[in-house]
Design a protein that fits this description.
22% of the residues lie in helices and 28% in strands. The protein is α+β, with helices and mostly antiparallel strands.
């Protein structure tokens, strides 16, 4: 019977609520599902006045740290979901996103009314271990 391992690393922003940074499916351990990552520093600090590009970098760096802790990497991401609060930021978010996801995983990008802690962007992913 499949179960999951909780993934946690101090190299990414801590979970802001009652959830894990990511989970890894066992016994095969071939799938990793991350929680959405806000543009927070590893200590949880948010600098919401920074440009959307810098905030997008922080979201993806958090994903990278979590995937590394789970034995994976951004190169093994097969699906992402990007949440933004303003579609006017779509091009700038894409400009940063494409620097990291050169393998072009499947992706959804949706505009939402608001995100936790007032963040303008949040990104989650599914990756192979």
């Amino acid at each position: 019977m499949a179960s999951f391992d909780r993934i946690s690393t101090a190299n990414a922003a801590p979970a802001a609520g009652p959830y894990s940074q990511a989970v890894k499916i066992s016994p095969s351990s071939s799938w990793i599902f991350t929680s959405g990552q806000l543009p927070a520093e590893a200590d949880g600090t948010l600098r919401l006045d920074d440009p959307i590009g810098e905030q997008t970098h922080r979201c993806i760096k958090n994903l990278a740290a979590i995937l590394e802790a789970a034995g994976s990497s951004l190169d093994k991401v097969i699906k992402t979901t990007v949440f933004i609060t303003d579609m006017k930021n779509f091009a700038e978010v894409n400009g940063v996103y494409e620097q990291y996801f050169t393998q072009k995983p499947a992706r959804s990008c949706v505009a939402v009314k608001e995100l936790p802690k007032g963040a303008p962007v949040e990104i989650e992913c599914i990756a192979l271990a």
